[in-house]
Write a structure and sequence with these properties.
This protein has 396 residues and is of the alpha/beta class. The chain contains 15 helices and 15 strands.
Length: 396
């Protein structure tokens, strides 16, 4: 295989999973990051090359120039794999230029950003008949009246640009109970220069969160797919997957495949849904245009998304694959799940018995791998360092 795979980012387990998924098949994997700090994924034995690059956001021009200069030196065009929303946004903004030197499944500039942006996604969903939670924009007439009569309290103040919001506030959204809290949340967003929308909370516990994960080929047809059910997330109620299992839900395929194929999406994408506990109706919550954080679960199931991408982009696509029955396997990000369990118990949402029973299921781990242990040891060192610093700061 002459084509290398360039994986962006090494300080998160999504990139680690991507590196492993490609490396096990003998693909030469190159990791690029702007810093060596906390880059535990770079300790993987499956990594062939590691490069420090300009910051993708603070110095975008030089970052793009670096990518292009690197690709020009290669015998064959590398496959480019973003592992963070911000990476995807930057690639999307320079897609036409980068596609001259890299193999990237998406062909329509701006589409990645369009589905990640909550405002434009809401409009896309409405246009294509996909249910979304009732939403009010700040520039709507009678804004406060609509919030109180259509959305109602409690509700959520949600960012249009999630990555920037999370970087600023270290959370995915604000949950507000009344007008006073709403106005306070809106002020925080305004002062940060971030656009937000106000949305109804779909009733149901965290296990009413589901996903449709799919790979679409260059004809924009779904070839590989799976549906999963979240059981726990962190932060609880409005966070990322920390304990998620495979669950066959054919209705999600019907909704998700039609949506992605209609908008001519190509490559991997994931729709997060929430099932209304009162009506059973599925609502689209968001779309991820980069590899999902429980990618290792998909890999263990037999859906190696990074390698599926690599093979198609290098002209040797793999056979279509999906599952029509439940697979007894869960993704587990132990560190954040422990934090989530603490909060679920503290808030009375789960019991020790329920948690203990769930932990007995076979697991696909976020970081640990017997065949590639060094990233886990590196990660453990990072966590221990944080704990010691916290203790020292407290004593100080």
């Amino acid at each position: 295989m002459d084509n290398k795979a360039v994986v962006l980012g090494t300080n998160y387990y999504i990139a680690l999973s991507a590196i492993r998924c490609l490396g096990v098949h003998g693909v030469k994997v190159v990791a690029m990051d702007y810093s060596e700090k906390d880059t535990y994924a770079a300790k993987s034995k499956y990594l062939s090359e590691r490069l420090i690059v300009p910051h993708y956001k603070k110095d975008t021009k030089r970052f793009i120039e670096f990518l292009i200069d690197y690709a020009k030196k290669q015998e064959s065009p590398p496959v480019l794999i973003p592992c963070h929303d911000l990476h995807a946004e930057v690639i999307d903004a320079h897609l036409e230029e980068l596609k001259k030197y890299y193999l990237i499944p998406q062909t329509e500039p701006g589409l990645w950003t369009k589905v990640m942006d909550k405002g434009s996604l809401y409009q896309l969903a409405i246009e294509h008949g996909v249910a979304v939670p009732e939403t009010v924009r700040l520039d709507d007439e009678n804004f406060l009246e609509k919030v109180e009569t259509i959305v109602k309290y409690p509700c959520i103040v949600k960012p249009v640009d999630s990555p920037s919001f999370v970087a600023k506030f270290r959370r995915k959204l604000f949950k507000v109970q009344n007008r006073e809290e709403l106005e306070e949340a809106l002020d925080k967003a305004k002062n940060a220069g971030l656009e937000v929308i106000v949305q109804r909370i779909i009733p149901g516990f965290d296990d009413h969160m589901y996903t449709f994960d799919a790979y679409l080929n260059q004809d924009a047809k779904v070839t590989h797919w799976s549906t999963c059910q979240k059981y726990r997330q962190f932060p609880i109620n409005f966070g990322a997957s920390v304990y998620t299992g495979h669950k066959y839900v054919p209705e999600l395929y019907e909704i998700g495949a039609k949506f992605f194929e209609t908008i001519k999406f190509k490559g991997f994408a994931e729709i997060e849904f929430k099932k209304d506990s009162e009506t059973g109706k599925f609502y689209m919550i968001e779309v991820n245009a980069r590899i999902t954080n429980f990618n290792n679960l998909l890999y263990k199931l037999g859906l190696n998304i990074p390698y599926i991408t690599y093979r198609e982009m290098t002209g040797a696509p793999l056979e279509p694959k999906s599952f029509k029955e439940d697979q007894n396997l869960v993704f587990w990000y132990a560190y954040e799940d422990i934090l989530a369990i603490r909060d679920y118990i503290k808030s009375g949402q789960l019991t020790f018995k329920e948690i203990f029973k769930s932990l007995l299921r076979p697991k696909a781990y976020a970081i640990w791998d017997w065949k590639d242990p060094m990233p886990a040891f590196s990660y453990a060192g990072i966590i221990m360092g944080k704990v010691f610093r916290k203790i020292f700061k407290t004593k100080d």
